[in-house]
Design goal:
354 residues; mainly alpha; 14 helices; 69% helix; globular; transmembrane helix; TLCD
Length: 354
């Protein structure tokens, strides 16, 4: 499928990046550099201009405009919300309408390229360019954990311009289907709506979507990509297969294997990099979900009665009093909130590739 981005590649930008793309073996980067930089510029605009304007207009009571760290965190959540809604919608659209991508075999899934999948990859890379920049500028706020996250995520999406696993760019971006609910949950807290019914319903949706898109969908697709990578490490695309692909069609918009003419087996270091990143992400996803389940169980455990017995054993009255106090404390437990079963948004953000 042809790249559906409304702006065509800008010759000057493509020419500027070409030497770097050649040196790094990223032949499709010149076709999408305008999308990478455009996305980074758009998210910078949202963070520095749009978020302050909207937040001051509609949430002036809660927007921490005079607190540098809290303001940066608020604006970053606005960007994250906008990005997750946009990229999820485009990824779903690409998966539905890109017929060439849908009909890909394993060799095309590894070495193939379509313009639409390249666009998804470029827009995601642009987000991580912004993420890396904003983290470096506010390292004292976001910390080394988010810096490592931004660097690794940008590296993974940049490697896709080889092209490598271009097919999977839309698939794994759908991990982000839970991110809008996560950001909305965070904003409910900041708007003093913790424990409200809207936050409860949003929290239930968050748990369900998190389970479906990250654990079920993500684990299954990870197994599929591992099989493809194992085959690709063993051998490159078949020469007869490549020749037949070029005879059937020519041009980057028609031949999925256009950039695989001289491709060999996938380097082991590249496969290991992707497997390590994916395993880390999936492990964290499972860890966080079981933490959620554990938190739910704890909310339904009865309060344990505690009573201090003085030395000498003459503490019957105190024991009775302690039991009564323990019982009353059990009756006075605070109302359950979805806050108890959802991990902190910053902690989840550190454990995911957004």
């Amino acid at each position: 499928m042809r790249d559906p981005f409304p702006i065509a590649p800008i010759p000057a930008l493509s020419a500027w990046i070409q030497p770097y793309a050649d040196a790094l073996h990223l032949p499709t980067l010149p076709l999408h550099i305008h999308e990478v930089l455009g996305a980074a510029a758009f998210y910078t605009f949202v963070h520095t201009i749009l978020s302050p304007i909207i937040s001051n207009a509609f949430f002036s009571k809660y927007y921490p405009k005079n607190h540098r760290a809290r303001k940066a965190n608020w604006d970053a959540h606005v960007v994250s919300l906008a990005q997750s809604v946009l990229i999820n919608g485009l990824a779903l659209w690409t998966m539905y309408y890109d017929e060439e991508r849908a009909n890909s075999d394993w060799e095309q899934r590894v070495w193939g390229y379509t313009g639409a999948s390249g666009m998804i990859q470029a827009l995601a890379a642009g987000y991580f360019v912004w993420d890396l920049g904003i983290t470096l500028l506010n390292l004292d706020i976001f910390g080394l954990g988010l810096l490592a996250h931004a660097v690794s995520a940008l590296a993974v999406y940049t490697f896709g311009f080889r092209p490598y696993l271009n097919y999977y760019s839309s698939i794994f971006i759908l991990y982000e289907l839970s991110t809008p609910f996560l950001n909305i949950h965070w904003f409910f807290d900041k708007l003093n709506m913790t424990g409200s019914k809207p936050q409860l319903y949003n929290g239930i949706a968050l748990l369900v979507v998190f389970f479906c898109c990250r654990l079920v969908w993500g684990t299954y697709q990870s197994a599929v990509v591992y099989v493809d990578m194992w085959k690709a490490v063993q051998r490159g695309p078949d020469a007869g297969y490549i020749a037949a692909a070029f005879e059937k069609a020519s041009g980057v918009d028609k031949n999925l294997m256009h950039f695989a003419k001289d491709a060999g087996p996938v380097p082991v270091w590249l496969a290991v990099t992707y497997v390590a990143s994916n395993l880390t992400l999936n492990t964290l996803n499972w860890y966080w979900y079981f933490k959620m389940i554990s938190a739910v169980k704890k909310r339904f455990e009865p309060a344990k009665e505690k009573a201090a017995v003085p030395a000498g054993g003459k503490g019957t009255g105190n024991v009775a009093t302690g039991a009564m106090v323990g019982e009353k404390q059990g009756l006075r437990q605070r109302a359950h909130s979805i806050e108890d079963v959802v991990p902190d948004s910053e902690e989840l953000r550190q454990g995911t590739i957004q």
